Amino acid sequence: MLGATLFSSGQNGHVVTCAPRYTHAPFTPKEGIIDHRWISLIGRCFLIRRDLHGTQGTVITPCEGQVGHPSGNCQAGISAEYTSDGEDLLMGTVGIKRFRGGLVSYSDYEKMSTFSPNISVGKDDYMGYTVSSGHFLSQISTEFIGGAPRGNNILGKVLMYSRDKNSAIQVTSEVQPPQGITVGSYFGSSLCVVDLNNDMFSDLLVGAPRAFYKDEGRVFVYVNNRKGALNLQDPLGLMGDDIPYAQFGKAIARVGDLNKDGYQDVAIGAPFEGDGVVYVYHGSENGINPSYKQKLKGSSVDSGLRLFGSAIAGGVDMDGNGYPDIAVGAYGSNKAVLFRTRSIVNVEGRIQLSRNQIVVESNDSLCLLDGGQSHKCLNISVCFTNKDKGITSYAGLGISYTVDLDRVKIVRGTDSFRRMFFIDEETKEKVFMINGVHNLTKRGESHCSAPRTVYLMEKDSLGDVASSLSFDLNFGLVKSCGSDLCPVLNDSLHTTHTAKAFFMKRCKNRKVCVPDLAVDGNAILVGYDRNHTFDRHLRIGLVKELILQLTVSNKATDYAYYSKIVVKYPISLGYQKTSDCEHDHNLSENETQYQLSITCDVGRMALPGLSNKNFSLKFSTASVEDDFSIVVTAESQDVDANEDDNSKEFSIAVKYEADLVIKGYSKPDQVIYSGAVKERSKVEEFQQEIGPEIVQTIKVSNYGPSVVDWSEVTITVPKLLKKDEPDSFLMYLLQVEVIGSGSCNAVVNPLDIKSCSEAGCQSFQCRLGRLRHGEKVEIKLTSRLWQNTLLKLDKPVVVELETIAHVQPPSKVIQPDKGNDVTTIILTAKPSRTGGSGKSIPWWVYLVSVLGGIILLAGAAFVLYKLGFFKRKKEQLNVTPEEAVPMNKSHRASLLNYPGTREQETPCPTNTTFIKGTFFKKDYTPEYTMNFESLDKTDYKS
């Protein structure tokens, strides 16, 4: 593996190459054979002649002679470089002492090697995997740095070594790894010693290419505090683009001062990011700039490159332009790429004005255009200075530039608010930007372009005279270098420049005014009848417009330049128009999350001192719903003398006035209940078995004038006939339907009732949506009368079932008439004329009644038989009572007074009893009996 390690200390310096896997086996003279049992990877290095033509004949094999010893596989030269003072060659020996590893220093002058001690390292730590040196403890001492990527239990370790007074190598300190470093990150597998901040002390970059979760890789920067300690600059480290599996930090190299800013720069390889990438970072006064300055992709050079960035070398000027170049190895494709550094041109540009003060009210500095119009004007020139620091002077190199006038006044992409312009030399049109090309002068010299005239807008169109006029310059190099490598502008210097000119104002201080603006006014509410206005409240449905009448005054003697008012109002108001407001094109609406704003200029250019301006704004109130405020603020670009009166707030209270009317009816309003009591299971199975269907309709109407939102209708219906009898239902609610905007929370299929004073009632609410003037909502309740409850009563009764509905608008709504907020719907339930007693009679009652009647009849017949009733002759039976006994007058009167006669319908005597058509008088023994079976029974009242 000769060439596995290659190092050059620079022009006229040392060059060394190593073969770390060089093997050695002892020779046995007696037997004339090689003893293969003791073959060892001892490694060796060669010094190359400075003209690169062969070696100097010096072969360095520090581990030779230690065959068979634990140091026999030391692999010297796995890393190597000359010390910063150029006196010693520093080599890594990773396999020594059972792969504890170490460093060895070879003195070319003394021709001897010195090994580092094996303290502070453990087995398989691989100390010496990378080596470097620098001035860490002082500006004149030289310390060694060694990396052990498997040290610290595979977290990685970096040690600093120094020589004692006997030239022995000893451990000075350990570079502390950052907290949170992951196991197997290979911290210390790459090192770079470089003075980043140019303080003559060495700083250190340590690579951890396998760091974190997906081998993204990190490089940690340690800045020397000039007291012998290395401080970690950022715990997160450098990371490139943080690409998974990129192994950022696999190679790190100092590449010299690429941009000639006085600080050393570094290049970091990420060979597994795509086909390989190299990131370039610039040093700075604070250590290193954490953002990379350039990203070199192998694929942009050659699509066939693989593992681009696995090795990097720099710091050598290969093309002689005074700038160091970078060489990058692509291990996977056996190629190396040389990147030449472009020269950096240091140019300073500026705009030179003929004058920087303008008096608007005066007539001096006027220029005439071709149309005979006179304008305020001034001249400008563009100047450049060559401040190049390189060895090459770029006199004659072209610089392209643009000059943009009043760019800050571009609003929404329009140039309408720009206050000055050029005249195009060819088209004679107004333009706001010019372009040009300027040739660089000799180093250190300045040169300016020919003057160009800038014209100001007319006084009435000038607008803002409070802010300064801006002239913006942008420039860059003209890309025309032929076959040569084009230089670039130093991006650390500004490639832009802004010059400013100021307006001289009519104020005590010519540049700064102190106005005193104040706002006053009132809000007028106009009804649909324009002759009707409202002073205090905005009544929804009655007020059509809001007119804001404003007065802006300047109570100071100084002018209020570019004064304006800003009106902030809610989005519910609709802006219609403005009057008495200057420059309507300046009127704008800018929407924010909660409100809109109108900006209106006061005066064409300025509001003079001790003057005022009146104007009005008109808004539509069609969408207003809640109380709101309008805030009017007067302002200028100068500091106001008294800001307390610069704003005025108009608070508008909103009132709702509406007459909600509720009505209800039932269809039908009378029902008949009949039949026998049914089993509960049969009733619950078929709705038709419950009883007759009833549809009750509740109608809510808004008679205005305001719209009403979220009114609530409370509906109360009977539920139970008796509170202590949960099955005594009356009405069965099947459906609640809202026709219009709204919804109800009623539970359908509950059972309803008769009177709230005697029974349990069910109440539910319906929430109505928006009701505008003239709109209505209907609520339909579909129910069935639960007639079982009425059939179970002791006697048939007529029942009136009351459903009560009450509408309640929101509290903010004023109702002129509350007497129509409640309605009562009455449903009358009557028993049928042929209905039974209402109770179902068991079968055994009929059986017992029949048997009882038979027994009673048999007993009566037996008694009559014993009394001789059946012994009369047939002819006696044929004689009527009238024939047998004459009727006297008292008997006739008694008969006529009987209540069943048609002549007189008087109540039955309380001491009279009817039995089978025969009546008897109590406390009276009749002289006769009368049979009424032949009479019509309907003629009598029971």
From TrEMBL:
Localization (cell): Membrane
Keyword Zinc-finger: no
Domain Integrin alpha third immunoglobulin-like: 662-754, 755-820
Keyword flag Membrane: yes
Gene Ontology biological process terms in this record: cell adhesion mediated by integrin; cell-cell adhesion; cell-matrix adhesion; integrin-mediated signaling pathway
Entry-linked InterPro entries: FG-GAP, Int_alpha_beta-p, Integrin_alpha, Integrin_alpha_C_CS, Integrin_alpha_Ig-like_1, Integrin_alpha_Ig-like_2, Integrin_alpha_Ig-like_3, Integrin_alpha_N
GO molecular function: integrin binding
Repeat region (FG-GAP), residues: 173-231, 233-290, 294-356
Main location: membrane
UniProt xrefs under SMART domains: Int_alpha
Keywords recorded for this protein, A-Z: Cell adhesion, Glycoprotein, Integrin, Membrane, Receptor, Repeat, Signal, Transmembrane, Transmembrane helix
Protein's membrane topology: Single-pass type I membrane protein
Any one annotated GO CC term: external side of plasma membrane
Pfam hit, one: FG-GAP
Residue ranges of the TM segments: 843-865
Residue span(s) of domain Integrin alpha second immunoglobulin-like: 507-652
Signal sequence bounds: none
All copies of domain Integrin alpha first immunoglubulin-like, residue ranges: 341-505
Recorded family membership: Belongs to the integrin alpha chain family.
Name used for this protein in its record: Integrin
Species whose genome carries this gene: Desmophyllum pertusum
Protein encoded by which gene: ITGA9_3
